[in-house]
Amino acid sequence: MGGPTVEGEKGDEEPTLGELVREIAHDAETLIDQQFELIRSEWRQELDQAKGAAAALGAGTVLVATGGVLATLMVVHGLQRATRLPLWGCYGLVGGAVGAFGAGLLVGGMRKAGDIHLAVPPQSLAALKENFAWIGDQATQMTSPNPTPSPGRSLADE
Fold first, then answer.
1. How far is CA 40 from CA 34, 43, 54, 117, 118, in A?
2. DSSP code at position 120
């Protein structure tokens, strides 16, 4: 190192196999850390969606219950008075209408909840698999006697 070089020798020493393996391991660790941070970020987004769906389901449930009670008490007697139908028939009509409205709210909330995916997001999983394959290729190239470039890449690119 640092001394005069003999003609035919390289001025810069090539890294040893151990140094190359350490560099690959460090790069792989950094890459994996970044992938897991991406996965955590995507999970946070999915949980935010879950909060919105839970709020819609909760609001729908409260409105169904409140609407059922108030509409039944308010409209039933007015309907009975206007139509002279039996009181039980008026309760049935009003209760059915309120129940249908509440069911619509619950269906909407369930659709929102159906868009939530708490598993590993497919894009992150695909990227993680690709990175592991790249790490394996790099390790194989560094340990083989004649490293060959990856498809579409030259040794100078690496």
1. 10, 5, 21, 13, 11
2. -
DSSP 7: T
Model pTM score: 0.39
Task: Count the alpha carbons within 13 Å of 52 in the hemisphere toward its beta carbon.
Answer: 13
Residue 131 near residue 35, CB atoms below 8 Å? yes
CB 95 within 8 A of CB 84: no
pLDDT along the chain (158 residues), means of 10: 47 80 88 88 88 92 83 84 91 84 90 78 77 79 62 49
Residue 60 burial by Cβ neighbours in a 10 Å radius (0-12, 13-18, 19+): buried
DSSP character at residue 146: S
Amino acid identity at 151: P
Q: Are 38 and 117 in contact (CB under 8 A)?
A: no
